Amino acid sequence: MRSALIRYLPLVLLALAWEIAPRLGLVSPLVLPPLSAVLGAWVELIRDGELISNGASSLYPRRRGACRSPIVTGATLGVFMAWWRPVNVLLSPLVELFLSDAEISADPGDRAVARLRRQLQDFC
Fold it and tell me: Are 20 and 29 in contact (CB under 8 A)?
C-alpha cells in the first residue's frame, strides 16, 4: 500500500497543482483551466457522444500511417523488451544493429544520442 502511495504521489501533486494554480490566479484560467473543469468537459463530451464520434473520425485516416510509424513500432518494441526478458534477449541484437546507424551518421545530434545511449548502457 505504501509503495503505491509513493508511486502515485507525483501524479497526485501534479493534479493538485493543476487545480490550485488557476484558482489562485497563478496562471490564467484561459491558458490552463482547472483540472475539475477539464474533467467535467470530458465527461460532458463523452455523455453527448461527441468525443467518441469526433475522435474516431479523426483517428481513422491516420490509422494506417501510425501502424507503419517507426515511432510506434520502436515504442512497442521497447515496451515488450522491457517487460519480457526473453524478448529482450532475442531482439536486442536486431535493435543494436539498427541503432548503430546513428553512430556513423553525419548529423552531430545523432552522434550525441548514440554517445548518450552508450553511456547509459555502461551505467546500467
Answer: no
- Domain limits at 108? 69-123
Number of domains in the chain: 2
pLDDT tens digits along 62-87: 555 555 566 677 777 778 888 888 88
Residues 50 and 73 in one domain: no
Angle formed at CA 109 by CA 62 and CA 92, multiple of 5 degrees: 70
Q: Is this structure's pTM higher than 0.85?
A: no
- Which residue, of 60, 86, 102, is where some domain finishes? 60
